[in-house]
Write a structure and sequence with these properties.
12 strands; Glycosyltransferase; 2 domains; two-stranded antiparallel ribbon; mainly alpha
C-alpha cells in the first residue's frame, strides 16, 4: 500500500511538472503575445494583476501609452521613477498597436479580477482616443502632436493604426466586448459618433483616379486628406497592405450605406486587378552571411500584393532610405530588403471575405 501511495505521489509530481512545462512563461514572451495570446484563465492570475499594475504606470497623463515597450517585465525602482517622470511627455501614440493593445489587456484582466483602478485607466485611454481624433475624422500617429512638420501629424493608416482605434470604438459601442466594464451610456454614444466620423474620413481619403475610387495610402494629409509621405522610403502610393485592413473594417459595418458599399466594391476591384500571382518571398543567406529576401517564382503560391504602388503608373515600387523609387526589390539595398515588408498577403483576406460580405447586403 505504501508503495502504491509512493508511486501515486511520484506520478502526480511528474504529471504536474509536465502540465506546468506546457504553460507559457509570460516573461519569455513579447508584450503583444502576453497582452493577446495567453490562456483565458491567465488573465485572472496574480501575474496578470502585476502586469496590469505596470501597464497603468506606463500610461501617460494625457491617457495614451507609448509604443514598443515590454510592459510585462518587472520594474526596478529607478525604472518606476523614470516612467513617472516621463508621464507628461509627448510619447502617447496609436502606432504599432499602442494604446488599443493596453486597453484591451486591462479590460481582459478587469473582466476576471475587477479593480476600479483598471477601469479608470481604460476610460482614461478611451477619453484619449476620443480627444485625439481630428474634426475630419482621422487620427494622427501621435497625440499630442510632437512636431507640426513631422509625418506623424498626418492621418495614419500605417500598420493599421487608425483601424485598430476604430475596431476598439466599435467594440465599445456594441457593448459586448467590454460589457464587464459597465461603461456609462454616454461613452457608447461618443464611441459610435467617433466611429462614424472615422468612416467619413476613410471615404474622403479613398484615392480617386479618373473618377473611379481605388484604395488608400498608408497616411493622408491631415488637412487636404491627400496621400502623403512618411519616412523617406514610404512615399505617397496606393497601399497594398493598409488598404486591406481598411476594407475589412468597412465590411464589418452593419447595414452599410451606399457610399460604404461603393467604397468596398472599388477596393475589392483594385485588389483583384493588382494581385501578383506565381511568386513567393523567400529568406536566404547571402555571400556575406547576411539574411536577405528575394522574390521567387512559385506557381503554387497564393497571391501577393506589393506594399506600395505608384500613383501615376500603378506599378509596384521599392525604396532605399534616399527615397528614390526602384521598380524591383532587387534594386534596393540588402538593409532595406531585409528590414521592411515590401510584399503582403493581406489582400487575400479581402478577396476571401468579399463573397460572404456580398451575400449580407
Amino acid at each position: 500500500m505504501k508503495n502504491i501511495s509512493y508511486l501515486f505521489c511520484v506520478f502526480l509530481l511528474i504529471f504536474g511538472m509536465e502540465v506546468r512545462a506546457e504553460e507559457p512563461d509570460y516573461l519569455e514572451l513579447s508584450w503583444k503575445e502576453v497582452a493577446r495570446k495567453m490562456p483565458d484563465e491567465w488573465y485572472g492570475s496574480v501575474d496578470a494583476a502585476k502586469v496590469a499594475e505596470n501597464v497603468i504606470k506606463y500610461q501617460k497623463d494625457v491617457g495614451g501609452w507609448p509604443k514598443n515597450l515590454a510592459m510585462h517585465q518587472a520594474l526596478s525602482r529607478r525604472a518606476k521613477s523614470l516612467i513617472k517622470a516621463s508621464a507628461k511627455d509627448y510619447g502617447a501614440t496609436i502606432d504599432n498597436e499602442a494604446t488599443t493593445l493596453e486597453m484591451r489587456f486591462l479590460a481582459r484582466v478587469y473582466a476576471l479580477q475587477g479593480g476600479e483602478e483598471l477601469r479608470r485607466s481604460f476610460i482614461k485611454g478611451l477619453d484619449y482616443l476620443l480627444e485625439a481624433q481630428y474634426d475630419n475624422g482621422g487620427w494622427p500617429q501621435f497625440y499630442p502632436v510632437r512636431n507640426q512638420k513631422h509625418y506623424s501629424v498626418h492621418i495614419t493608416y500605417n500598420d493599421n493604426a487608425m483601424v485598430n482605434v476604430m475596431n476598439l470604438l466599435k467594440d465599445v459601442y456594441e457593448g459586448k466586448e467590454f460589457a464587464a466594464l459597465q461603461l456609462p451610456s454616454n461613452y457608447m454614444e461618443q464611441a459610435r459618433a467617433s466611429f462614424d466620423k472615422g468612416v467619413e474620413a476613410i471615404l474622403a481619403t479613398q484615392i480617386v483616379v479618373n473618377g473611379e475610387p481605388t484604395v488608400w495610402c498608408a497616411q493622408h494629409h491631415r488637412e487636404t486628406m491627400l496621400p502623403v509621405q512618411a519616412r523617406a522610403y514610404e512615399l505617397p502610393s496606393f497601399s497594398g497592405s493598409e488598404s486591406a485592413g481598411i476594407t475589412l473594417l468597412l465590411m464589418d459595418i452593419d447595414k452599410p450605406s451606399d457610399k460604404v458599399i461603393a467604397a468596398v466594391e472599388a477596393a475589392v476591384s483594385w485588389f483583384e486587378t493588382n494581385k501578383i500571382e506565381g511568386f513567393r518571398v523567400d529568406w536566404f543567406m547571402d555571400e556575406n552571411g547576411e539574411m536577405d529576401r528575394k522574390l521567387v517564382a512559385d506557381p503554387d503560391s497564393g497571391p501577393l500584393w506589393a506594399r506600395f504602388y505608384d500613383l501615376d503608373n500603378g506599378k509596384p515600387f521599392f525604396c532605399d532610405r534616399d527615397g528614390v523609387k526602384k521598380w524591383s526589390m532587387e534594386e534596393i539595398s540588402q538593409e532595406r530588403r531585409g528590414g521592411y515588408a515590401w510584399y503582403t498577403e493581406q489582400g487575400a483576406k479581402v478577396l476571401k471575405r468579399y463573397p460572404k460580405w456580398k451575400k449580407t447586403l
